[in-house]
Amino acid sequence: MKTINIDKKLLEVCPNLQLGCINYTVNVKKGNEELWGEINKQISEITKSMTMEDVYKQKNIEDSRNLYKSIGKDPHRYRVSSEALIRRIVQGKGLYKINNVVDANNLISIISKLSVGSYDTDKLGENLIFRIGKKGESYKGIGKDIVNTENLPVFSDEFGAYGSPTSDSEKAMITNDTKNVLTVLIAFSDDAGLEQYMSEATNILENYVGAKNISTYISKAEKELNINER
Q: At what angle do helices 33-49 and 100-112 cross, to 10 degrees?
């Protein structure tokens, strides 16, 4: 099981930061009809109930934007993934179909309004940390050019940054060969409903993705909280 520590400097800026981590094994496939039925249900509800102005009023998105401002990153230029996904939906652009893990990741994000990342843990080192991006740091984003991660909150192993709430790198992206996954829900406040959303996420991964050997925990200031193992 992979665990993630939170760097003290990041906690100084955001002392209530919490990471909801879900480790599991999986067979990566094309998204199934049941999964996309649930995604389309969420898309329909958002389309009917939300305007672009409403996107910014969602508490978990607002918390993310405020954190970006506090560390010197423009939240309009560097949008967290949950905001970017919901903006696409409100604009009528829908969501891309990638594979069952990535599609489920996006479903969890639009339900929780939290930035969510899923990583192939076989491609990661042993020392995982969530920290502030270093000066001049960058990586090749998934489906994007180089992402400037300086001052962004980033996930890193001993070899460098591999993901952020805005855009992940190609290093640990989910592919058809992926077997072991770490899905992370990023909460920038202690009242983001993280435990509830982790429970919903676990059910989505079990029911729609066929996740097995699930282990969940919350990483936060000074300690890790073990929640459940299945």
A: 30
Q: Is residue 155 part of a domain?
A: no
CA angle 52, 90, 202 (to 5 degrees): 110
Give the CATH number of the domain where residue 59 resides: 3.50.40
Name the strand (E) or helix (H) holding 13. helix 8-13
CB atoms within 10 A of CB 214: 17
**Position 226 pLDDT exceeds 80:** no
Residue 213's domain comprises: 17-123+169-229
Say what the pTM is: 0.94
pLDDT digits (tens, 9 = 90+) for 176-204: 999 999 999 999 999 999 999 999 999 99
* Residue 65 resides in a domain: yes
Q: How many residues does the chain have?
A: 230
Residue 21 lies in a domain: yes
The pLDDT mean for the chain works out to 94
Residue 143 covered by a domain: no
Q: From CA 67, how far away is CA 174, in angstroms rounded?
A: 27
Q: Above 60 in pLDDT, residue 57?
A: yes
Total tally of structural domains belonging to the chain:
1
Query: What mean pLDDT do residues 59-74 have?
Result: 93
Measured between alpha carbons, how far is 163 from 216 in angstroms, rounded to an integer?
20
State in Å, rounded, how far the first CA of the chain is from the last one.
13
Partners of 225 in beta bridges: 218
